[in-house]
Every structure is written in structure tokens, then in C-alpha cells.
Amino acid sequence: MAQIQQEKNKLNLTPKRFNMWVFIFTSFMFFAALSSGFIVYSGGKGHALNVILPDAFMFSTAIIVLSSVTMFLASKAAKNLQFGKQRLFLWITFLLGVGFFIAQIYGWYILTYRMGVYFSNPNASQSFIYVFSGMHLLHILAGLVLLIISLVGTYRNTPQVLNLFRMEMSSIFWHFVDIIWIYLYVFLLLNQN
Amino acid sequence: MSTLTVQGHGVAHHDHDHEHHHNETFLTKYIFSQDHKMIARQFLITGIIMAVIAMILSILFRIQLAYPDKAFPLLETLLGRFAPGGRLDTNFYLSLVTIHGTIMVFFVLTAGLSGTFSNLLIPYQLGARDMASPFMNMLSYWFFFIASVIMMSSFFVQKGPAGPGWTIYPPLSALPKAMPGSGEGMTLWLISMVFFIASQLMGGINYISTVLNMRTKGMDLWKMPLTIWAFFLTAVLGLLAFPVLVAGVVLLIFDRSFGTSFYLSDIVINGQQLSAEGGSPILFQHLFWFLGHPEVYIVIMPAMGLVSEVMATNSRKPIFGYHAMVYSLIGITVLSFIVWGHHMFVTGMNPFLGGVFMITTLIIAVPSAVKTFNWLATLWRGNIRFTPAMLFSIGFVSFFISGGLTGIFLGNATLDINLHDTYFVVAHFHLVMGSAAIFGMLAGVYHWFPKMFGRMIGEKLGYLHFWLTFIGAYLVFFPMHFMGLDGVPRRYYSFTEIESLKQWVSVNTFVTWAAIMSALAQVAFLVNFFYSMFFGKKATENPWESNTLEWTTPVEHIHGNWPGEIPTVYRWPYDYSKPGADTDFIPQHIPFSQTLTSNLPHDFEDNPVGLEEHKNWVNTQKSNEEVK
Question: Where in chain B are the domains?
Fold first, then answer.
């Protein structure tokens, strides 16, 4: 029975970490499907994108790359037991995430009202811009929730194992959404004409 | 979905008490259970209920096909506005076909099959206390339950359930005004599928993670039973394929409700030109079948795994070609992603591309044939025990062969021009993935019933159930091949309007009566199942004398599965009838040191010390013989 007691108390986080990686894989497949859809559509129908992407997307890309850097710094601080620093960088990451969100919405505003590239569009290639960025924003929302969970943990007396685990979860996911956006942006840029 | 993943990381549910004196309320034990055994039973019973509903739907439309001109006042009493004057409404007929397909493919053979047996057997056969994330596992079931309820609720909306077929091709599915079945029913279908996919993804993540991380000591990948290999690869398929369906469905929802035109172009309804233009309905077919084809393997692979296990146990022989079985499963998994175009040969696809899809499709026959050969070779000169589970497994192989052969016809791009959308296709997939997968599932239910409910399921009713269903299924689906060859199209409401098809009504009548007979046979199963659940003979710990770890657990279910330490695994799961052994089975947790008389040099392939010991023992035996 002693053995079972021990097993019970041991917190086995490996499978949960693994769950996150598998989930990321499914998410990746989702975006791969959307971009393949774009290729099939624009190739088959001969509808090119024909839009110069608004500058807002460039800024948002810069913001999210920067947020990845601050996320990395937060993880590093957590590993070195510098909890004040960890909290600070987490907050910065969170705010940059919100900034990214706003920049994307602003990008949509420019697209719709200044450039006349509507979501409901006979050229569905152009609708795809909204689908890509919209679906990505849903992932950003999930990432922000993860960041909040990590942040709340730093204000409570969380065991370091758990703190590090949460940090790891948030950073894996946050870097992933960052990479996905870069992929989508580059994909759109390459198909601009 | 990601937020759900996050909740799964909490630790609240980690305080499982592995002892007996924990407090469980009715709610935590039977409803919101996080125990893999309970979740498996929840999946099974929900799956059975859905299967019965789908079967009743099929009988309804079979009656229409057999007696297209007859009125049955009883139908009006039962169905109300869906059967005015006792004849099925034409739109309701389409809804019946759609919902029958959807429930059978997704709710019964995907969730009911993998959900039940992956949940039951992955922790049991691998030697784990539970799934990687029990909480996510529970959510997976409840999302499935919600999906089922929403799907059923579509029978209660004014215009009836979705009607564009289970493949929901746009533009029919994208335009709510196109027909009654494209209205609210279609919306509910889409919502239900969103929940369903979420459920499958959560389940799949859990299965993969558990298989890769939570195997007991000594259980390396090549000691896993074939069931686990099959569930693992099925989960991989699901995780790769379902997100693609999500992408397709998201775009479809935008087309339905937000005025985009991903799939819509040049459409006229009631003489009115719609504003949507520039879309490509073929795009949906690509996205759908990229899921849809792997989906048929998601349906059949767990059945293959279950059948391999049941056959080896009941033939009292090792499975023939264990490694070949695993590699062919992997082969099927990989190939299933590059064959989706064979559903689209007649969409105006470039003939060269059609040729490529044709070749990849025909290549799938190779791993399938390897598996079939191995099952037959496992039976060859075995000490066969004809339990109901064994009969259903043999039935599985029979259907897999006879349905698989017609797949070679349909995989040919040129032949498919003739056969596409005819009853030949209906016959093909009902045999190879419908009947075969259902038989695999039933084999699993009969075989693991003692493990699930602690009681034996009745044998006599099991035999009755098998023979009626087996004969019935062939009588239903075999004649359809000939209808298809004659060009009878699927999904038609009535054939009396078309001169050349009138002659087939008599065959349809025959098929309908065969279907009614098979449906009645399921009553035998239901009675047997629920009766045995409460009043069956008490089961022993290892009633089938099987080798895998689940049969080392106590009959009474406990949290954490094993009361003491989890057994360590020393050997592969198929040591049946090993020469020199005392019994005709040696369970996986028996070390080689206890079976000296039956050890063989190849048992010690990666264990030089053990091999040395074995040689010493053999030499001693020999010298002893000489002394005598």
C-alpha cells in the first residue's frame, strides 16, 4: 500500500505536457487545412488575392514577435526564482498580446473601410484574410487565458513545480501562436498578387 | 478547445483515492465520472441507443423503398407531418438518409466504438491507473452526449432534420432556402458536429498521450496488444483529420450565415439569381474528403484491433504476423491521407490526378490483404473456441473481404464513372465499413462484457443474434451490387417514376424484409445485453483464458484498476499454446523464470544474460536426460 500512497502523491505532469503538444499539432493541422483551402481555391478559380496588406499587420507581427521575447524572459526569470521579474514580464507579454489583438482589429478596419476589401466578397481569396486572422485571434484569446492562469499563480503561494509547469504550458502555446501568425502573414504576403 | 485543455492541467482531480473508503456520490460515480471504465460504459450505452435510433430510421426509409405507392396510416400516427397520408414526405426521406448516415458513421462507429474500447482497454491493457487526463476524458463524453442530444433535437424543428446527405455538400447545405432539410435542421447538424469534433479531439489527445506516456514497466511498444496499436493509430488519424473538417465546416458556416462565397457560385433559386459568386463547391469536397477518407479508417481500425485480439485468444494461437499486423496498420494510416480524391473522380478532376489517386487507392489493398491473410492464418489449425465474440470476429473478416473486393472496382477512375452514386457504392461501404465495423464492435462487446459489467453475457442469444445478423446483412447488401451495376442511383425517394428502374422494386421489397429480420435480431442482442448486465452469470477474473493485463484486475471495479502494484510485463501478449508450457496461455505478467520448460531462444533477443541462463538450463536438462 505504501507504494500506492507514493504514486498518489507524485504529480505526474509529463502526460499533460504531452497533451499540449498534441493539441498544438491539431491546431497546426487546422491552419494547414485553411491555407491548403486557399491554394486550392485561388488555383482552381484563378482568383488571386490582389490586395496590398495593410501596414497594421506588419506592426502586429512586430508586436507578437516582441511578446515572444518577453515570454521567454518571463520563463527564464521563473526558472531563476526571480518572481518579481517573472510577474513583470508576464504582464508585458499579456499587454503585448492585447496590443496584437487591437492591431489585428485595426487591420480589419483598414481593410474594410479604407480599402473596400469586404469579408463577404465574390473573391473568396480576400475573405480568407479575415478567416486566417480571425481564427488566429481565437487562438490568441486562448493564449491570453493561459497567461492569466500563470499570472494568477504568481500572486498566490503556488509550489514552484506547478508554477514552472504553468509557465511552460503558456510559453509553448504562446510561441506556437506567434509562429502560426508569422506563417499566415508570410503566406498572405507571398500570395499577395 | 484550448481552454478546455488548460483546465485539464489542473490538479484538483489528482487526489484520486486508490483505497476503498472514499466518498462517492451518485453524481460523481455514474454521471460526472472521471473513471475510464465508467466513461467507457457511458460511451457504449449511448452508442447503442444511437445505433438503435439509426436502425429504426433505416427501416423507415426501407419501407418507403419497398412499397413506394402504398400508404401506411400507422406511419402518420407515428411521424405526424413527416408522413402525411401514411406516406413518407419526400424531404423527410432525405433527412432520414442523412441522419442515418451521420449517426452510424460518427456517433456509433467513431464515438461508440473508439470511445468505448479505447477508454476501456488503453489503461487496462497498458497497465495504467487511468487516462492521462481523466477530467478531459469526462468532458469528451459529455461533449459527445450534448452532440447526440442536439442531433436528435433536429427532429423537433419545423422543417425537420438536415437533408443534404451525411457529406453535406454545398451548395445544398450552404443555402438555408434550398430545401427544408437545409434550414434549421442543417444548422443544428453543424452545431452538433462542432461538439462532436471537440469531443473526439479531447478523447484522441488523451488516448495518444496515455499510450505514449503511461505504459507499465516492461511494456515497450512491441509488447503492446494489437488493440492498443489500432486505437493509437486511430487516434492519430482522428487528430490529423478532424481539424481539417473543422476548417471546411467553418467556411461553410460563413457561407450559410455571413454572406461569404467560399463554396457558392452562380446560383438561382426559384428564378432568382443569388448574389453569391466566385466560390468553388469542389473546395468543400476536398476539405471534407481529406477528413472523410481517414474517417472510414477511424471506423474500421479499432474493429481490426479488437478482432485480432479476440481471434488470437479464441484460436488459442499467437496472432499470425504480429509485426506485419502493426506495419500494415501504419501503412493504412499513412495511405489513408493520400487517397481522398477517389471520392471525387467525377467532379471534373484532371484525369492525370485521377490516375494518381487511383494508384494510391489500389495500394491500400496491399496492407488490407496482409491483414486478411494474417487473420485467416491465425485461424488455420487453431484450437478454435466458437464463442459469440469469435463468431462475430469471423463475420468481420468475411464482410471485410466481400466489401473490400468491390473497393477495387470503385477505386478505378474509369469504372467509377459508371458506378459513382449508385447502389453499388451503397453495397460496398455498408459491407466493408458498416457491417464489418459493427461486427468488430459486437465482437468487442461480447468479449469484454465480463470486464465491463462483471457478468457473463448469455451465449445462446449471442449465437442467435450472430446468425440472424450475419445472414441478414448479406441478404440486405448483396442484391444492391446488382442494382448498382444496372445504374440504380442512391438517395432516390421512389423508383416507380422511372421506367427502367421499376423492375427493381421487387428486389427492394426483398431487401426491406431482410432488413426487418436483421433489425429484429438486434432485439435479441438488446435483451441479452441488458438482462446479462443485471442477472447474468457472475464472471471470473479471466473467463477467456486470455493473456492481456486487463484480465489480471479484480472483477469488481476499483479506482486505479489494480489493488496493489501494477503488474510488470515480461512478454508479448500472444503466448498461446506455446510448446512445453503447462497451460495453453501464458499471461503477459508471468516472467520467463517461471516458464523454463517453454522458453525459446528468441524470447531473449535483447537480453544476453537471459539467453545465457536459458542455454545453461537447456544443457543441464540435456545432461540429465543422458544420465537417465
Answer: 28-535, 564-627
DSSP secondary structure of B252-284: HHHHHHS---SS--S-EETTEE-S--S--HHHH
CATH architecture of the domain formed by B28-535: Up-down Bundle (1.20)
CA distance, residue B265 to nearest chain A CA (Å): 9
Which chain A residue lies closest to B281 (C-alpha atoms)?
A: A41
d(CA B67, CA B509): 7
The verdict on a CB contact (< 8 Å) between A8 and B209 is: no
Query: Residue B19 above 50 pLDDT?
Result: no
CB contact under 8 A, A33 and B17: no
User: Domain ranges in chain A?
Assistant: 16-190
Q: Which of A11, A30, A162 sits opposite B247 (nearest CB)?
A: A30
Put simply, the chain A residues between 54 and 113 with a CB less than 8 A from any chain B CB are: none
Cβ–Cβ of A47/B278 closer than 8 Å?
yes
Give the pLDDT band of residue B276 (cuts 50, 70, 90).
Answer: confident
B603-615 residue pLDDT tens: 888 888 888 989 9
Considering only the beta carbons, identify the residue of B209, B240, B260 that sits closest to A121: B260
What is the share, in percent, of chain B residues with pLDDT greater than 90?
79
Does residue B20 have a pLDDT over 50? no
Q: Which residues of A touch B240 (CB under 8 A)?
A: 25-26, 29
- How far the first Cα of chain A sits from its last, in Å, is 69
Select, from the ranges A40-49, B168-177, B319-328, the one with the highest average predicted confidence (pLDDT).
B319-328
Model pLDDT, residue B270: 80
Question: What is chain A's percent helix, strand, coil content, to nearest 5?
Answer: 85, 0, 15
Q: Which class for B218: exposed (0-12), middle (13-18), buried (19 or more C-beta within 10 A)? A: middle
Mutation choice for A interface testing from B6, B36, B239, B350 by most A CBs within 10 A: B6
- Please report the ipTM that was assigned to this predicted complex: 0.91
A117 neighbors A129 (Cβ within 8 angstroms): yes
Q: pLDDT tens string for chain A (193 positions)? A: 444 444 544 567 888 888 899 999 999 999 999 999 999 898 877 788 888 899 999 999 999 999 999 999 999 999 999 999 999 999 999 999 999 999 999 999 999 999 989 998 888 889 999 999 999 999 999 999 999 999 998 888 888 888 999 999 999 999 999 999 999 999 999 988 7
| pLDDT for B4 | 37
Interface of A with B in 11-30 (CB under 8 A): 11, 14-16, 18-20, 22-23, 25-27, 29-30
Residues in chain B closer than 8 A to A30 (CB atoms)? 243-244, 246-247
**Backbone dihedral region for residue B539 (phi beyond 0: left; psi -120 to 50: alpha; all else: beta):** beta
Grid cell in block for residue B584: 495453453
Query: In the CATH hierarchy, which fold is given to the domain comprising A16-190?
Result: Four Helix Bundle (Hemerythrin (Met), subunit A) (1.20.120)
Q: Do A26 and B278 touch (CB under 8 A)?
A: no
- Rounded to 10 degrees, the C-alpha dihedral B493/B496/B497/B498 comes to 100
CA distance B559 to chain A (A): 12
Of A18, A23, A37, Cβ closest to residue B283: A37
Mutation for testing the B interface, residue in A29, A42, A164 having most B CBs under 10 Å? A29
